Amino acid sequence: MPEEEWNSASALHDPSGKGPRLYFQRVPEAKTAKNRVHLDIRAAVGLRGDARMAALEAECARLIALGASRFRRFEPDWKSGGFIVMQDPEGNEFCLD
Q: Considering the entire predicted model, what is its pTM?
């Protein structure tokens, strides 16, 4: 990684391996809304295609029951395995990935 990008991303993980991994990265886009943090929640680790999207849909339904709302589904393509953009009850976006 070039030196000018050394501080562009960081990750935190639970040393016991039980908690989630948190990954932070800088993005080139300017802030356009109140969000300062955008979370990607890994809900289909190791899955691909229809199995991956089914796992994401199941997690989406669980989160809707808890008060989240669905914003948009992105189908798998050459650069992404597919994901679902959602919003928490306050309107902050996050992705099921």
A: 0.71
